[in-house]
Structure formats: structure tokens, C-alpha cells
Amino acid sequence: MNEEKKSLNFLEQIIEEDLANGLPKEKLRFRFPPEPNGYLHIGHAASICLNFGLGLRYNAPVNLRFDDTNPAKEEQEYVDSIQHDVQWLGFNWDKVLYSSDYFQQLYDWAIEFIKTGKAYVDNQTSEQMAAQKGTPTEPGTDSPNRNRTIEENMELFLKMRNGEFEEGSHVLRAKIDMKHTNMHMRDPIMYRILKRHHHRTGDKWCIYPMYDWTHGESDYIEQISHSICTLEFKSHRDLYDWYLDQVVDADKLRPKQREFARRNLSYTVMSKRKLLQLVEEKIVTGWDDPRMPTISGLRRRGYSPESIRNFSEIAGIAKRDNVTDVALLEYCIKDHLNKTAPRVMAVLNPVKLVITNYPEGKEEFLDASYNDYEDGFGSRAIPFSREIYIEQEDFKEDANKKFFRLSLGREVRLKNAYIIKGESVVKDADGNVTEIHCTYDEDSLSGSGTEASKRKVKGTLHWVSIKHAIKAEVRVYDRLFTDEAPDSYKDKDFKEFLNPDSLKIIEAFVEPSLKTAKVLDRFQFQRLGYFCVDKDSTAEKLVFNRTVPLRDSWAKMGE
Description:
The chain is 25% helix and 24% strand. It is α/β, with parallel strands linked by helices.
């Protein structure tokens, strides 16, 4: 039992304590509350996996609630993308809800606040209010409007509601304590005027509730037992509780806010504002650009739901902010695709190789397994002919003993095929090798059962038959930034660290079995990395995205 307790994260420990102290298990209810003002990223995936994971652990419902209180930044496009991302990650919600569902109730409560002297209308400028706010070590000063009569506040608030004032001219503030040690408690704004069209309520409202006022009351309306937020909301918890104090009934469940550290990832930025900047300035092709840390970008790049869930589990839940190495995320996708992705052959940097003693015009189809190490993957027939492509990097005219690939006078095996020996080369006017001429051992066909087929050579190369190869566009993606923390510098713009080599587009050749590959199908290109079929693919033109190389190209080499 003690070992099980140790395996619980601190949020699960809180829930267990609440259950032990009498909270009925059937009262457990969680929520994932995104703002529909952008696409979700890998940091949100941590919250999704946490909240929905708690729902699965305790067999409790989880709401998907959109905190849509700012019509200036919210769009239906984001609502749709968020729902897609949550489902793609493998989770199901109990109800889809919106904070805008509660606008009338929040407004009615605000009226009660005014009537009981707990809120007032302030028509000072934002600069004046900020000056009165004080500092963390100095108390604030009261607004000259703080002691308006209830009747005056009611009249002004109704005029706000009816659209009689301009944006920014009036706000409704909670009357708490301008000398409170927590600055969030110094008469926070509850409502502001925004004459904007809302994606759900249209033009019904021209005043909108602030997030802090909406958050806890929405949790209360939905009877959320544990409102789990990221760490920046810890200082807001006093206000969360104060707002609840004013409305809760003794016979209803009172939500409890607790916080965990948001997920930060090296070599990227996690601010939706900065990600939007990359999109709007066309530094990337969109929210789902495979270099983006968005869930849609990771999906397009070839990441699987399983790999992201596993990453969230391994990275864990922390109480303090930290940065998770992107190498862990890359490890998780490699680990999953190593077990699930079929292995095929593609040549990204081709050079022509002619097997001079192979009969001209001859073709044969060789049986090749999709995975030599695991059962259940099946196999396919791959065509073999006299002329093939290999990678330029796999040949050196003169090589030292540490080079185990093809060179003149040396033998290597062609994957699933024959042993060949380098004999001569053809060069262009600049001295570049344009053709490699080899001979093959006819009895060395891999898996043929002959003694020659069992002969060991140190190198094995992937290849494609030139006559049968399919041209494909391959997008070789790398990290978008060259710095581990590109937005951590006060005196530098994060875009100064953009990686100029984050995308290279090349024309490659792939084996013909890939002609029927479908969008988001994932493969290991043998010896090269993991690749995914992009949505830009057509029947006439295959497009592959590199998900991740087999080896970390950013790791320091021990040389």
C-alpha cells in the first residue's frame, strides 16, 4: 500500500486525502478549460492527459469547457481544433460546455454583488487604476468611486449593459481590500465593456466577465470537485475562493483549486501569442506547420497520440516550473514508432549504381519483411534491377578501416538482396562521382539458403531500383530554434534564434510499395529516420515529413 501511495503524484494525493476525509467518490468531477484563442500545444497536452487521466483513474466525468470570455480573440476555428486534438489524443469528455453558457448567471450574481455593497462601477482610466494598485510591498489606495451608492452603481452598470458607454470608459470592480497583501485582491475588475461579436452569443452582450470572475463560478455551476490549473494561477487562488464565498450554497459541492507547473519544452516557445506571431508573419506555414509545438503540428509531423501520452506520463507533474528536454519527446516517438512503423527503403541523396554483371533488362522481385525483428508486420515484394540508387554518403572512393559502407575493392550487402563489390566510378568534369560500377555475387541473395547468402560483410545498404522508384518530396524538419530557451532573453527577440535549417525540401526516391500510402501513415525509412505522409500528398505526388531522425543530430559527437 505504501508503494502505491509513493507512485501517486501530488494532485492524486490531494484527491485521495479528500476521499479519505469524506468526499464521496461519485462527487469527483474534473474539467479541461482551454481558451479558444489559439491551437493547443504540447504544454496543453500535459493538462489534457492530467485531467482526463484523473477521470479515467477515478472513473469520474471530465468536462471540456471553453473559457470564452474574450470575443476579441476567440474563434470557432479554435473550438473545432481543440475538440479534434482532445479526441485524437484518445480522450472523451462527458460534456462540452462554455463559459458563455453562464453569462446570464454571472450577470445576475454581479447584480447581487452591487446590491450587497460588494461591487462598484469605476470610470477612471486604466492608468489611474494602475497607479492606485500599489506594489507587492506597498498597499494600494481606494478609488474615489469606491463608495458610490448602490443606486448609482446599479444605474451605471445597467448603462454598461445597455451599451451606453464606450469601451474602456467603465468597469465593474469587486470591493475587497486595496491594502491586501495579494494584489489580485485589490478590487479586481469583474466586467469590462467590449463591443465585439461573440462566436456563440453574437451581439447579445457588450459587457464581458473577466477570467477570474468566470473561472471559479463556472467550476461551481458545473460542480467541479478539483479545479486543476497551471502554476501562474496560484496567486489567484485567494480571489477564486473569495468569489466562491459570495455565492456557494452549503448543500452544494465547493470546488477546490490546485496548481501544477506548466510544461515548458526546450528549443521552442510555448506562448500562444508568440506562436500566433510566427503564423501571422508567415515564418511558419500555419498552426499545423510540423515545426510548431502545437498538437496539430506534431500530428502532421508524424507524432502519435501514444507517444505524446507517454511523454506526458514520463515527464510527470511538478510543483515548480522547469524545462523538459525536447529529446525526451523525441525519444517517446522513436520508441513508439520503433515498435509500430513498417520499415521501408528510400534514398534521399541518390547516386546511381550499376551492377555491371547483372543481366541487362532483367528484373526480379525480392521478398522483404516490413520488420526483421518483430512478427506480425508482414512483407512485400520489392523490385530489383541492374541500376539502383544508393545514398551518396554510403560510398567513398577511398576509405579507411572505420568506413563500413561501399568503397572500391570492398563488399557490402544490399538490404534484402545481394552482396556487391565496388569496382570503378564515373565522374563528371568537376570530379564528382556520377556513377558507381559494381559486380554482384549471384549466389549471395539474402535468405536464399545458400552458403554465399550467409556470408558476413560489415556493411548493409538500403537502395531502390531506378526503373521502379517513385519520386517523392521529402521535407526534412529540424528544430525551429537554435537556442534551448529562445524567449528567455530580456534584450533579444526570440525570433533572433530561428534555425535557418529548420526545413530542407529535397527530391527523393522511394520504393514502389509506398505508392498506396495514405496521409498520416508512418514509416521508418531504413537507416534514415521516421517519416510520415503529409496532407499535401496527392496520387501524382507523394510528400513525406521527417518526424525524427534515428539518431539525435544535435547530440555532441564523441570526436
